[in-house]
Design the sequence.
């Protein structure tokens, strides 16, 4: 009967001729591939994307200032592309305000309207004492002015759904192509009572209402546009709400 042979192995991970022989005969496992090439490729891709997108946060005046640093033909092509994007946004910006909704008009003003643009409905507190709901009302108006190609609506929750729990407000309903795509009950999954414009802009990007490279998002917010700071100063903390199903 053959007895097992103990093969001396100093370091199974070392790159030695002896270890190569052992791996060939299946005595020690093959070395896992080095992560270095993968990491280097990821860094290279990140550098390439950063270079390709280096002008995404520039407005037209800033693009003019780059004439000495960028290829003239490329810069002119990018300027035309940016102007076309701004023109398209301008043509689509037909809302620019928060629309109060009545239940008899809901189908027309929300469901049907979502076949032409994203429609977001804020179901507000019926009591008017909900801290998060008061905060979202202010942010809703700022978003409506900034993103006129998206329709922002508002309706008291109990007018939409009878006996809707006030603790579930504010509720955000997202409609597109005639269907409800997402519902957010309270601001808990955003930033609670600290929710600001940037949190809602991220939501708009996540649902596809905005593109990630939209110049309106990338543009540095003016003091009057950043309600997150104001909201944090003026709105007291609210107690946590239960994430019950709305019905």
Sequence:
């Amino acid at each position: 009967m053959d007895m097992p042979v103990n093969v001396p192995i100093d370091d199974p991970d070392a790159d030695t001729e002896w270890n190569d022989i052992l791996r060939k005969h299946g005595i020690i496992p093959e070395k896992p591939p080095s992560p270095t090439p993968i990491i280097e490729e990821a860094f290279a891709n990140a550098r390439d994307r950063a270079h390709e997108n280096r002008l995404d946060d520039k407005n037209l005046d800033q693009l003019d200032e780059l004439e000495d640093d960028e290829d003239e033909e490329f810069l002119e092509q990018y300027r035309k592309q940016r102007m076309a994007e701004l023109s398209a946004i301008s043509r689509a910006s037909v809302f620019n305000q928060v629309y109060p909704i009545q239940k008899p008009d809901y189908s027309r003003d929300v469901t049907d309207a979502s076949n032409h643009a994203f429609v977001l409905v804020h179901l507000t507190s019926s009591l008017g004492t909900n801290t998060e709901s008061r905060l979202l009302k202010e942010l809703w108006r700022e978003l409506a002015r900034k993103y006129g190609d998206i329709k922002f609506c508002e309706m008291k929750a109990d007018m939409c759904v009878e006996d809707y729990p006030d603790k579930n407000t504010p509720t955000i309903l997202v409609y597109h192509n005639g269907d409800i795509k997402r519902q957010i009950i309270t601001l808990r999954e955003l930033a609670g009572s600290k929710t600001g414009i940037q949190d809602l802009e991220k939501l708009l990007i996540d649902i596809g209402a905005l593109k990630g490279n939209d110049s309106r998002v990338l543009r540095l917010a003016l003091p009057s546009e950043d309600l997150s700071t104001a909201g944090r100063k003026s709105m007291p903390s609210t107690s946590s709400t239960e994430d019950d199903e709305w019905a």
User: Anything to note?
Assistant: Confidence is low (pLDDT under 50) at residues 220-247.
